[in-house]
Each structure stands twice: as C-alpha cells, then as structure tokens.
Amino acid sequence: MAVIQDSSGRVLLSRRPDHAHQGGLWEFPGGKLDPGETLAQALRRELREELGIEVHSHAPLIRVTHRYPDRSVLLDVHRISVYRGTPVGREGQPLAWVAPASMRAYPMPAADLPIITALRLPDSYMITGPDHHNRDAFIRRFREKLAEGRRLIQFRAPDLEPRAFRQLAETLADLCRAEDAQLLLNATPELADACAADGLHLTSRQLMSLDRRPLPAERWVAASCHNAAELKQAERIGVDFAVLSPVLATASHPAAEPLGWQRFQTLVDRVNIPVYALGGMSANMVGQARDCGGQGIAAIRGLWC
Fold it and tell me: How far apart are CA 229 and CA 235, in angstroms?
C-alpha cells in the first residue's frame, strides 16, 4: 500500500469499487503481492497498473494487521518519495488529494485508520530535559527547538509542583500554537485539560491503570511502553502512539536491559499504532527506526540537549 503526497502535503486516496470488499470506501492505493514478487516489485507494478506512475524510491511508514469478520489483512505501507508521471484512475476509480488532517471526512476501511495517524506524526518526538527550574533559560531553549523545526514535544517535569508546572505548561502551549507545533504533557488528564495542551503523555503506570482512552479523539494521547503487554494495553484503550524503550543503552537508566533493534522491530510489528524508538537515540537514527517499523525516534538528550 502506498502513501503518495503532492508538493503541498496532500495525500492521494482512491475509492474502492462498490462491488469489492469494503466497497465504496476510500483507501490508499496499492494491492496484493503476486506469487514470487517482492514488496518493491508489487508496489511498482500496482501503482503502474492503477495510477500510471513509475515509482523510483519509497520507504516504510507502518505495518497494520487487521481482522475483519470475513478475512484478515496485512498492510505493508510505504511512503513514495520519488515517482514519475501524474496519477490518474486507470481502472476508472475516483481519486482525491486530501490533507492528512481532513482524512477523517473520507470513509475508509478500519485497517487504514492507523495510517492516517502515522501520516499526521513527524519522525521525531522531542522530550524536554530536566533544566526547567531556570524558567527563562528553559523557555529560550524551547523557542530555539521550535525554530529548528521540532513539531511534536512532550513537556516532562515530574519534580515541579502542580502550580509551577501549570504556569510553565501554559506558556509552552502558547508558544507551540504560534508555531503550529503540538505539545503533550506528561501529567494527569485533568492538568492537560486545564493547560489547554494538545494532548497527554501517559506513564506506563498510568497506562496500565486505565480501561479507556482518557481524552477525546481530537486530542493526542501517547504512552510510555517497555514490553509487549504495555503496547497491547496502549492499543486496546485507543492510544494514538507510543514510545518503546530502552532500545539502546542509555545513561539515564544504566541498569535497564536494552531491547535492541531486532526486539524493537518484533514488538512494533505486533501492534497497529505508530511507535517511536526511545533510549540512546540521536537524530541520525530516524532512518534505522523507520526501517525497523517505527514511526521515528523519541529522545531527551538526542533532541533537547
């Protein structure tokens, strides 16, 4: 399955024939592997047949396994980075170019919905460091990171008392709104609401204590996970995305056993939500995280410091 974007970031959708499985719904272009085909070969063939374009390069975005009442599907979704030609519906299928934020208005198969979330998320998730006690210096650094292009940020300050946390969080939320960035608070749902933040980041303890998603669908909910059970719980309650750690050794948790990239990939492949790699990450590891099925990287030292 392919994600094709134009120069303004809109994504190409096609509508399934009425007589087909999930007929009449909109979907991302693509199709099945023929016997003996590699994924790359199938992707190029399908997009040539369906849209009349020639794919030159692509990269993994997310893998989704979904069980319908009558069948199960595995969607191996790739973002098309370079292609030649102008997409047309060569099989008579209607096409639409849609902004990721507007895709919920287009009825889509349930299996395609996690792809929308992955498209709306950047490839890095910055977590603020422990230098929040010097408010002015902290805000200066925060502004610098926004200027660098950071657009998904978790404000984490577990040692701040609630009033000071709220005051600083409200300031950060204002800064993010001005730059079209998203701020998630590592806090309680009530505090995230009070600060008008874009969402909430749950600790693993909070995550495992919940039986439902703590915020409405229009607000982000993320969670910290360390194993398969926590990832499954995140998926079960409707978390939008997770961070999985520690992937590599990290100075902040020297006693923790690293998962390693292979184990990270195995765990990510079992859930249908975007997952960031956390622990020992640096900005140049985004590609490796994506190759292992992740959304990208999350980091404090690697992105904030």
Answer: 10
